[in-house]
Amino acid sequence: MDCKEMILSDDFYNILLDYPSDLADNALEGIPHCVQQLEDGYFVLYVDSRETEPLNLMNYRYAYIPKCYALLSPEQLQGAQMAALAGAYEESGISAVQRPPLSLSGEGILIGFVDTGVRYRLQEFVREDGESKILSVWDQTLQSGDAPAGFLYGTEITGEMIREELGRAGRGEEEATGHRDESGHGTQMASVALRAAPGAQIVMVKCRQIKPYLRRFYGIAQDAPAYGEDDIMAGITYLERVAQQQNRPLVICITMGTNMGDHRGNSLLNRYMERIGERRLRCVVVGGGNEGNFGHHYKGNVELAEEMRYEDVEIRVGENVSGFSLELWGNIPYNFSIALRAPDGELAERIPIRYGQERRVRFVFGGTLVYVSYVYVERNTGAQLIFVRFTDPSPGVWTLRVYAEGEPGVAEYHIWLPVETFLEKPTYFLRPDPYFTMTEPAYFATGIGNTYYDWEDGSFALGSGRGEEMSRENGPALSVAGVDVATVSGNVTGSGVSASLMAGAAALFMEWAIIRQGDPLLGSVEVRNYFIRGAVRTADDAYPNPVWGYGKMNIEGVFRELIEEI
Fold first, then answer.
1. Residues 303 and 393 in one domain
2. What is the C-alpha to C-alpha distance for residues 113 and 180, in angstroms, rounded to an integer?
3. Are residues 134 and 222 in the same domain?
């Protein structure tokens, strides 16, 4: 079996690594495996699951098991409602800077997406001279052609191939290369960015979906689009390599998110994006998700004197849910442990902390099986993690009793349920906290994580994620118009379109700064801070805050600030 077959095989685990691949080779001598190298010391190991240890947090570190990401504007289509074509673009100041005297279009800038592909034959993506606005596509799901240089799977659709196809008669939606965007999500996101920056070019990665073993492990609904952290990181590596080959500035737009992780920017994907955000001629934009109103975050505080204390957390589980997982992140130096009560009252007493073991709890009457893993010090965060997996959970209200012990004080912890699209039926906390609901990987300092609002009335969108309450660091940079945004196939609402709009605005600004030499060496942090300076703020709010960040994105305001400075 060659490496490509291993990568594609459902029998092989995908494991993320941040240490030299030769160490993995030595440890796995005699076991079928191969390694895909990414950038900055990251690797993906593919290893035969039939000849290695079972997948759990005891055999594989939490950080190395790929997290799973959902699309950020899922199933939000509202038909061909094109009445307000320019609404969000006018509100964001984009239309103003497209007009003279600035006449910005994003010329010379690349905008990269890791998404569901792009229908590049649509007129929306073809210039008046017949050239494509799509520079290239890496389709990770298509195996009929050549993979990009340095990659071991998928098919690269080059600009030359796209030009040849556009030259044929009968332009429509079907691509002769075999590439498809079945859901249309990537096509819509790309169209928003190009309406904002029509002179830019798109580089698209069609991300493959996760393997069945990860769906089983995390309890993700079988019909939910879900994408692996490893493939997303590979996609970002491709975007970066294309930009290097072209010697052009790049905006990376991430329109996927997850509730997995500590929500402080410590995942391997976050760390990789941080490094790219530190480079010149780069800008990283990430949507903060649509989890603000689903009840999937709980903030707990256990007040300790000297003895162990506990707090009860109630979770309502819907009917016919086959499984789901949750993550409890506890602040050091306290120790946390849990007990469980089923809806019928059956109790699993406090599960003692046994590091290095995965505990199995069988509920006799309801038939629910629960796996509990305690991670004393999680590798990337230093925090304690309790990872809980439910299989065939009984419907009704479950009680998670959270015990804390340690020195006198307040033991704080956070629990996250999966994003809504990963759940088969509504499952939520009865007493949720709406803050800290921005999805990963929007928590990072070198890029632009954003919430979204309704451009028509200026109100914050209830579905938008929010940052951490009472924190200046774990929150959005900006809020961006994200309700009823016009795309190539109708108006769309969600975090994905707000991020795409932000990416288009960033491309406009990078044209002025880099191509026109306004600030030719700027990078992601500088772009972020320019936009913060130009944001729209009200006198009634203190900034930054977990809802609006530093205010509403407005690129016209950025240039007004520059004029005042000059």
1. yes
2. 15
3. yes
DSSP letter, residue 238:
H
Residue 371 bridge partners (DSSP) = 360, 389
Tell whether pTM > 0.85.
yes
Q: What digits encode the pLDDT tens for the residues 335-387?
A: 999 999 999 999 999 998 887 789 999 999 889 999 999 998 888 888 999 99
Contacts of 263 (CB under 8 A, 6+ apart): 329, 414, 416, 436, 438, 440, 443, 468, 474
Integer distance in angstroms from the first to the last C-alpha of the chain?
Answer: 64
Output phi, psi for 457, to 5 deg: -120, 0
pLDDT tens per residue, range 94-127: 999 999 999 999 999 999 999 999 999 999 999 9
Quote the DSSP letter at residue 408: S
Position 82 in a domain: no
The CATH number covering residue 308 comes to 2.60.120.1290
The domain total for the chain is 3
Which tokens belong to 386? 């309790």
Are 250 and 368 in a shared domain? no
133 in any annotated domain: yes
Domain span holding position 15? 3-52
Q: Is residue 557 assigned to a domain?
A: yes
Contact 310, 280 (CB under 8 A): no
Residues 511-524 pLDDT 10s: 999 999 999 999 99
State whether 491 and 417 are in the same domain: no
CATH number of the domain encompassing residue 521: 3.40.50.200
Residues 190 and 260 in one domain: yes
The answer to whether 451 touches 289, Cβ cutoff 8 Å, is no
Under 8 Å between Cβ of 68 and 216? no
Burial pattern 358-367, b for ≥16 Cβ within 10 A else e, equals beebebeebe
Whole-angstrom distance, CA of residue 530 vs CA of residue 387? 40
Tens-digit pLDDT profile for residues 493-509: 999 999 999 999 999 99
Q: How far apart are CA 539 and CA 562, in angstroms?
A: 22
Amino acid at 431: R
